[in-house]
Amino acid sequence: MRMVTGDNINTTKAIAGEYGILTDDGIAIEGPDFREKTEDELFKIIPKIQVAKESADVIILDDNFSTIVTVAKWGCSVYVNIQYAPLTVVQLLWVNMIMDTLGALALATKPPTDELMERQPFRRKGNIITNVMWRNIMGQSLYQTIKPSKQVIGFTIGFLL
């Protein structure tokens, strides 16, 4: 485990030692010393830093305490919003999994064929959504906008009678 901080090196060592991050074979190095390292020395240190970055849940890139407050605030906000959501976390995961699966299936229903390689290349500036697709999207949007309006009006009239 690695700890990167903007604190004084002695403070950093004390905190890291207290939490068991800095072991006897571990290293603690300040920024200026790090920048003066040769390429071979950096090659020995950087893989350890990369492992630390990849295993971290949150990486704060600046040396500002307000960033930590902002990260904590966003974390609390997400937690509270999940609690107020009408779906539980497990239900949200199921919805996400189903939607991702169906989307992937929709894009991969036809297997690739050799004829695809014989087609003319697609234009670099070509549109992924064709005019026919735009027509269908707009038609569905209009239909779904108008249909619920009629249902609400019909329900209101029926309710008043």
Notes on the structure:
- Keywords: Magnesium, Membrane, Metal-binding, Transmembrane, Transmembrane helix.
- InterPro entries: ATPase_P-typ_cation-transptr_C, ATPase_P-typ_TM_dom_sf, HAD-like_sf, HAD_sf.
- It comes from Helianthus annuus.
- The structure is a single chain.
- The chain is mostly helical and about 160 residues long.
- It has two domains: about 10-70, no CATH class; about 85-160, no CATH class.
- About 65% of the residues lie in helices and about 0% in strands.
- It has seven helices and no strands.
- The chain has helices at about 10-20, 30-35, 40-55, 65-85, 90-105, 115-120, 130-160.
- The radius of gyration is 28 Å and the shape is extended.
Quote the beta fraction. under 5%
Average pLDDT value?
Answer: 76
Number of strands: 0
Overall tally of structural domains: 2
**Termini distance?**
71 Å
Largest sheet: none
How many helices does DSSP assign?
7
Gyration radius from CA atoms, angstroms: 28 Å
Order of helices and strands: HHHHHHH
Question: What coarse outline follows from CA principal-axis ratios?
Answer: extended
* Main structural class: mainly alpha
Helix content percent band: 55-70%
Low-confidence stretches: none
